[in-house]
Amino acid sequence: MDPGLAFLLGGLCALAAAAASLSVWGLPALRRRLLDDERARLRADAEVAAREQALRERADLEAGLATRRRELEQLEARGRGREDALDRRTEAIEDRERRLSVREAELKGAQATLDAERAEVERLQQRELRELERISGLRREEAEDLLLERVEQRCQAEAAEVRARADAALAHDLARRAREALVAALQRAAWAHGHPTMITVVPLPSDDLKGLLVGREARNVRTFEQEAGVDLLIDDTPGVVVLSSFDPLRREVARRALGRLLDDGRVQPDRIVEAVVAARVEVEETTEALGRAAAAEARVEPLHPRLLTLLGRLEYRTSEGQNVRLHAVETARLAGLLAAELGLDEALARRAGLLHDVGLAVEHEVEGSHAAVGADFARRCDEDPLVVDAIAAHHEEVQAASPYAALVQLANALSTSRPGARDGALEQAIRRRAEVEALALKQPGVLRALALQAGRELRIVVDPQKHSDRTAQRLARDVARAVEAAELGPGEIKVTVVREVRVEETAR
User: Fold this and answer.
1) What is the Cα–Cα distance from 22 to 14, expressed in whole angstroms?
2) Could you tell me the CATH number of the domain that includes residue 216?
3) Alpha-carbon Rg of the chain, whole angstroms?
């Protein structure tokens, strides 16, 4: 109920109660009239409020009807749209059915024509067959056999062509997959290019030590070069001296010996000899640690201690400027990656790749190629037969018995042939140094022969008991003539013969 209407009804009830009370108390007629007027006024107000309430309700109903009418109109429009779409679809379906009916009729006509033509062809074939039988004198069965034989020959020829195309496609696909495997392995392994060096720079705490290294009348530097087999280059460069030699082992021994002398502070010929001997022993002791480092880097464990020592020795071997120990690690990585691409045993491939050149460390001790020597050494160390086979066959000296040998061959070729891996000029110079030293060592009474200054000087240490000053001169001339006759390359080689009598006495 509307609040205003309720208020008016409440007022009327209150007036009625008041009138009842007035009548009880016997109020005059005037008061009754006033009550009647008030009652009439309140009734009129109640009627006005009721009409207003009715008008508001009517307006609400009309608004609701208008909203409903709009919704109905939208539904009618949507229904008309759907009806139009259905009409169009129905028309399209009817049109398609008409076209299909026409097409079906055409197909039936074409089928009838085709059946007639097929019957005509069969009739003509029968007639030609009878004519051929009459002309050739062959029965139908004989003609069919002859025809089948010719068809078989034609099919065999076509099959051979198909097989040839399939073989060519297979070979192309195998080559592509092999290239992809190689590229995938190389891209997963990133190594720096090789940078062969012939010098080792040794820092000095003070430039005053240069004079101490030279010694009186250059005795210290001559003794050091004679014992270590390297060139000790002392120039105006502040804070450093340079050790020069083609042999990395000699440079390492010389570097350690020089470090010992600098730490001790006493640079004398006797101390130089002791330092060089101690450095050689120290270098020998580090070879096993280098072998363990190579095995850890290649993820190959465990290895026999003798094999680890040989791997460490490869640190001081180079092949055309490439460090052989690093080459072995690189080959192991590549072989493992290739094995992973081909679904083979990755660990076994890495092991074979790491050990494939161990024979280079014992090549001068045992007769035979380094592949055969390395395979025999690995066999005596109880290595896997597949690893032994891969070592023996990595230069194709023997027939490979497993795919791992082929993987090691390929990984070895990739490691040696990648750009910057090797330097043939450096290897040629190393071979020239070895040949020059060998020519000198063939002469009687020669204790040591050292090729210095990049092979431009040959320093020969002779036994003073077997050579006098005069025979030393003749020896130098003979060696020079032998070097000329060997034709080891362009350039001059200075031959120096060192004959020194050293007398030692111990005072107590």
Assistant:
1) 12
2) 3.30.1370.10
3) 55
CA nearest 275: which of 313, 227, 323, 319?
227
Containing structural domain, residue 326: 310-418
The total number of structural domains in the chain stands at: 5
Q: Is residue 305 part of a domain?
A: no
Pairing state of beta strands 494-498 and 457-462?
parallel
Which is nearest to 408 in space by CA: 343, 341, 330?
330
Q: Measure the CA–CA gap between 203 and 259, rounded to whole angstroms.
A: 9
Average pLDDT over residues 414-426: 60
pTM: 0.45
Does 106 share its domain with 68?
A: yes
How far apart CA 225 and CA 254 sit, in angstroms, is: 9
Do the domain assignments include residue 426? no
How far is 270 from 425, CA to CA, in rounded Å? 37
Q: Are residues 7 and 54 in the same domain?
A: yes
Both 146 and 104 in one domain: the answer is no
Q: Which of 153, 170, 188 is the last residue of a domain?
A: 188
- Tell me which of 81-90, 217-226, 364-373, 421-430 is least confident: 421-430
15 and 90 in a common domain: yes
* Average of per-residue pLDDT across 151-161: 82
Q: How far apart are CA 12 and CA 389, in angstroms?
A: 124
Structure tokens at 192: 């720096």
Nearest to 267 by CA among 316, 230, 218: 218
Q: What is the CATH number of the domain that holds 351?
A: 1.10.3210.10
Q: Is residue 503 part of a domain?
A: no
Task: Please state whether 194 falls in left (phi above 0), alpha (psi between -120 and 50) or beta.
Answer: beta
User: Tens digit of pLDDT for each residue in 430-463?
Assistant: 677 778 888 888 888 888 888 876 667 888 888 8
**Are residues 119 and 25 located together in one domain of the fold?**
yes
Beta-carbon contacts of residue 320 (< 8 Å; ≥ 6 apart): 416, 422, 423, 424, 426, 427
Under the banding of pLDDT at 50, 70 and 90, the label for residue 425 is low
User: Rounded to an integer, what is the distance from CA 51 to the centroid of its chain?
Assistant: 93
Using one digit for the tens of pLDDT, what is the confidence trace for 238-278? 888 888 877 777 888 888 888 888 888 788 888 888 888 89
Start-to-end Cα distance in the chain: 138
Which residues are paired to 199 by β-bridges?
Answer: 244
| Residue 190 confidence (pLDDT) | 44
Do 261 and 202 have their domain in common?
Answer: yes
User: Is 326 a domain residue?
Assistant: yes
Cβ contact 356:391 at 8 Å: yes
Q: Is the bond preceding residue 302 a cis peptide, omega within 30 degrees?
A: yes
Query: 93 falls in which pLDDT band (50, 70, 90)?
Result: very high
